């Protein structure tokens, strides 16, 4: 079985009915690019840059040059394949020693997952945000770079983000530092963003659905709280509907859409995601071979016919007992 999966690595992921699916990698450090290339990924769908910011001495955050070097290393490591660099997603389950230049670290925050996290943190720290934006833009001079914004929920955040990007570009131009005009995408991981997708897509070039947080925020289940982990269920029809509707909306507008949450790397969901119209999945490099195997055996036209049944299920149990669950042989 292992040898068979190894042979699969460089086979293009195309379904039985000829639909090509992009198999992308999620990485956390630039050195993970080697594993991504090795696994046959056709690019990085999610580079979680917060890992450059975490586990450091208090007050020690990576500056523009350090970040630029890290992003360049990832870009060069991918050998010409596209790299989607997400701006920092710190806060909540990804704390850093210094949450903010202000006094926030001394403040007791009751619901960090609902607090100053991801793009909210970046917009609250404009100088640091522009530092990261400049670093990402500078990396674009070395390969195909796309920029991804986490936790977007408000149109005002989108406007501010694009203002910051414009400012960062202007600063680089003035400094004579080369960069390319990169595509900018949004993570769809808050229900508000899924519900506003059509409006948001007027601004963004692409979207990536973050199912880990979309489940947490749709079901009001803390993804890190073991007391309620039995209720953290990706099969909840409300979650599946938000994902399916987002994919349909993006496809209808001709915008690239991908899933980069754990669902993308879970073979139990491969057929379902293909049925929803997804043709791009980003996952841990170790999952690529087994998910690709599912893709190679799938017939998207047949699968699409069963989509309504799962979306109309009463509860997660019923949804998991539809054609999609049986297809992977689980009980
Ligand atoms: C997600 O929320 O699904 C996601 C991919 O982002 P993270 O797991 O880093 O929050
Ligand atoms: Mg997330």
From TrEMBL:
Protein residues bound to phosphoenolpyruvate: 48, 86, 212-213, 223
Positions that bind Mg(2+): 189, 213
Localization, UniProt: Cytoplasm
Keyword NADP: no
EC numbers on record: 2.7.3.9
GO biological process, one term: phosphoenolpyruvate-dependent sugar phosphotransferase system
Active-site residues, record numbering mapped to chain: 260
Enzyme superclass (EC): transferase
This protein's GO CC annotations: cytoplasm
Superkingdom of the source species: Bacteria
Domain PEP-utilising enzyme C-terminal: 3-298
Cofactors, names only: Mg(2+)
Keyword Metal-binding: yes
Gene Ontology molecular-function annotations: kinase activity; metal ion binding; phosphoenolpyruvate-protein phosphotransferase activity
Keyword terms: Coiled coil, Cytoplasm, Kinase, Magnesium, Metal-binding, Phosphotransferase system, Sugar transport, Transferase, Transport
Reactions the enzyme catalyzes: L-histidyl-[protein] + phosphoenolpyruvate = N(pros)-phospho-L-histidyl-[protein] + pyruvate
Function: General (non sugar-specific) component of the phosphoenolpyruvate-dependent sugar phosphotransferase system (sugar PTS). This major carbohydrate active-transport system catalyzes the phosphorylation of incoming sugar substrates concomitantly with their translocation across the cell membrane. Enzyme I transfers the phosphoryl group from phosphoenolpyruvate (PEP) to the phosphoryl carrier protein (HPr).
Family in the record: Belongs to the PEP-utilizing enzyme family.
Name of the protein in its database record: Phosphoenolpyruvate-protein phosphotransferase
Organism encoding this protein: Aquincola agrisoli
Lineage, top ranks: Bacteria, Pseudomonadati, Pseudomonadota, Betaproteobacteria, Burkholderiales
């Amino acid at each position: 079985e292992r040898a068979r999966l190894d042979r699969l690595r460089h086979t293009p992921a195309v379904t039985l009915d000829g639909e090509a699916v992009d198999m992308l990698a999620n990485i956390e450090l630039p050195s993970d690019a080697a594993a991504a290339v090795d696994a046959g990924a056709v690019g990085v769908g999610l580079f979680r840059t917060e890992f450059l910011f975490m586990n450091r001495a208090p007050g020690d955050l990576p500056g523009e040059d350090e970040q630029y070097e890290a992003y360049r290393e990832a870009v060069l490591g991918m050998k010409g394949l596209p790299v989607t660099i997400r701006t920092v997603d710190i806060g909540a389950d990804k704390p850093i020693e210094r949450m903010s230049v202000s006094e926030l670290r001394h403040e007791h925050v009751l619901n960090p997952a609902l607090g100053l996290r991801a793009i909210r943190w970046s917009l609250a720290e404009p100088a640091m945000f522009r530092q990261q934006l400049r670093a990402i833009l500078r990396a674009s001079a070395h390969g195909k770079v796309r920029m991804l914004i986490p936790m977007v929920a408000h149109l005002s955040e989108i406007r501010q983000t694009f203002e910051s990007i414009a400012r960062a570009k202007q600063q680089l131009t003035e400094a004579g530092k080369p960069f390319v005009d990169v595509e900018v995408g949004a993570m769809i991981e808050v229900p508000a963003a899924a519900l506003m997708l059509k409006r948001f897509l007027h601004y963004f070039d692409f979207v990536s659905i973050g199912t880990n947080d979309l489940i947490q925020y749709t079901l009001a289940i803390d993804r890190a709280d073991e007391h309620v982990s039995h209720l953290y269920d990706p099969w909840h029809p409300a979650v599946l509907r938000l994902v399916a509707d987002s994919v349909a909306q993006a496809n209808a507008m001709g915008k690239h859409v991908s899933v980069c949450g754990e669902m993308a790397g879970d073979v139990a969901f491969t057929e379902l995601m293909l049925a929803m119209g997804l043709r791009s999945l980003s996952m841990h490099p170790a999952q690529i071979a087994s998910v690709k195997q599912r893709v190679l055996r799938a017939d998207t036209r047949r699968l699409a016919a069963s989509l309504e049944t799962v979306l109309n299920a009463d509860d997660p149990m019923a949804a998991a007992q539809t054609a999609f669950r049986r297809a992977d042989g689980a009980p």
